Amino acid sequence: MTEGPAGGAPAGGAPTGAGPVRTCVGCRRRDDQAALLRVVAGGTSVLVDARHRSPGRGAYLHPEPACVAAAVKRRAFARALRCPVDAAAAGSVVAAHLDAGIALGRRGGTG
Ligand SMILES: [Zn+2]
């Protein structure tokens, strides 16, 4: 195992302590805020706050399908945002956001 360049993003999921730490509403693991996706309530669904600048209460989760699915299953969005957010709707908003991001680095052609 070789170490990455100094100052780069840490490999692995452990918080570095360099910045704010938040809990993922999907897997419930703590991680650097910068490594998590922020969502805010938007009506009965959520909005992805890519720049972490929207006001109000936010929920954090890893930008990973598994964490999105876990959050949907437990209705963690509504709980974290304290809004009557529809879990399925919120899940599809986040999933679509991930899909768009993933598509950029992928050649496409899924089964
Ligand atoms: Zn997670």
From TrEMBL:
Residues 1-16 have a biased composition (Gly residues). Residues 22-88 form the YlxR domain. It comes from the Bacteria. Gene3D superfamilies: YlxR-like. InterPro entries: YlxR (IPR037465), YlxR-like_sf (IPR035931), YlxR_dom (IPR007393). Pfam families: YlxR. Residues 1-20 are annotated as: Disordered. This is Predicted RNA-binding protein YlxR, DUF448 family. The lineage of its organism: Bacteria, Bacillati, Actinomycetota, Actinomycetes, Propionibacteriales.
